[in-house]
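fyi for ur records
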Amino acid sequence: MKAEKIKEAVLIIVSFVIGGVLTFVIIGGEDLVSSNSNTSSGLTCSAADCTKVVVDESGISEAVKKVYDGVLMVRNYQNNEVASTGTGFVYKIEGDTAYVITNQHVVDGADRVTLITSNDEEVEGEVLGGDSYVDIAVIRIKNVDGLVALQLGNSENASLGDLVFTIGSPLGYEYRGSVSTGHLAGKDRMVSVSTDNSSSSDWVMKVLQTDAAINPGNSGGPLMNTNGEVIGVISMKFVQTEVEGMGFAIPIEYVNSKIETLEKGESIEWPLLGVSMLNVSDAKNSYRYNFNIPNDIDSGVVIASIENGTGAADSDLREGDIITAINGEEVADSAYLRYELYKYSVGDTIEVTYIRDGKEHTTKVVLSKSE
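which gave:
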């Protein structure tokens, strides 16, 4: 009797085990196989007509194929010689015309610009417009066989750690069409830059950070998600012996907001405050000016002079005042002041916070038009 009970118990246990295995195979096995597979879908498309790309053990080769023929090498000719090279990409094709985005610093000073396609065809380009603060230029070329237009995506939907890639021409012609991959390493990075190739910074750019390999010649190329959508335009990298893998791209939303103006050949209209300025740190060490700067003030912008007929001239601002904020946003130096100022348009009224004789004041300024 006891042996029969033991046998019955064993049969029940075996039945549970078999039943559990069958249930696992029928219900959960497919999910496990999927999770252990080397295949995963790409990021959600930003554009409504985006074709989603599958990322598998082959990497992002399908995404690269999708966009490769839309990325071109840019040559900047000065005095009939190649002065510099960079990268650009087609963002629009209309009939027999294609439009290319690149960096302004790639085409700056050019007497002539040509672009080399993935089929190694060199075509003449016409720079329609560019701006050093946005660091974007638009080039028009004839639509040749094989060109494709890249889809402009959305960097705001991208997450830190997302796989990204770029295609460019590092170090010039020999390495054109090079693909590098990495991750979205940072968003909303504030990087001080010089727009006139001087040693001092006069502008701050809010950029995306990536650890994808960026080298001279990659400037102006697209930073793309795994679906081949452009989320940024490669602009710069940190170049220091102790720094590795810190490249930056201009968010595509900001680029998009300026493209139409540049495409029309028009200049971007930046507002004018109407002052010449010095950083507090420079003014303290200046022998030319004798400003009364309190010892506890280490940041801000000193007004060196005020231009007649501007909004600043009609405000309470005076020479020697130290501007510390615009509409409540702190300005550490002239680069940050310009960044905050250029958020607004000609005719807008802003509130300027400043220090005079050690006391804080505010005044309203109507922004003027640059001449």
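Helices lie at 2-36, 61-67, 104-107, 252-263, 280-284, 334-341. thats all i got for now
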